[in-house]
Amino acid sequence: DIQMTQSPSTLSASVGDRVTITCRASQSINSWLAWYQQKPGKPPKLLIYKTSSLQNGVPSRFSGSGSGTEFTLTISSLQPDDSATYYCQHYYGSSGFGQGTKLEIK
Amino acid sequence: EVQLVESGGGLVQAGGSLRLSCAASGFTFSTYSMNWVRQVPGMGLEWVSYISPSSGTKYYADSVKGRFTISRDNAEHSVFLQMSSLRDEDTALYYCVRGRADLTGTSDLGYWGQGTLVTVSS
Asked: B112, B95 in Cβ contact below 8 A?
């Protein structure tokens, strides 16, 4: 199975900061990577699919990039509502998630 | 509006079995792949299983392979997860999830149910 490793596990940043979360795959997954945001008590919400495509309704401050084994989720200007846990997911053959990155607002 | 409603969760003894159901509405069920994803409360997401629109392709996480079986009934707009030989570590909230688009193969996950809680006691 392909293993997904996210970093950092936790992140604290201020409103307006540029934030980057990294996801590494144990083997190439081409561009078959998605990012999700999850808030307490809610199911995850799809933000980005196929590495860099923004899901409908997601603010443009969210962006994704990468290919092969290394991928990033960037929030260009952090907002209070962005406090959440973020997960990457590969869908190359089977599927799997990273362990999550908890983002806190200072 | 896409709706996914899970049912069938509950308390079960280790070694026992449970069948989860997911009733889908608001889209052409027979053209979308479906998945089960689980989450231990307070912990991360774990993808569990995938089934193609025609049931011709199924995938499982290594942690459940040989114990869980995914199936679907397109006429009833439902997907199921038969779980057997349950272990403590299967305790989790189980989400029924639809692929974002009607694509072949596993995919990004655009629509999630609210989940059904499975508790395995030893």
From this structure: yes
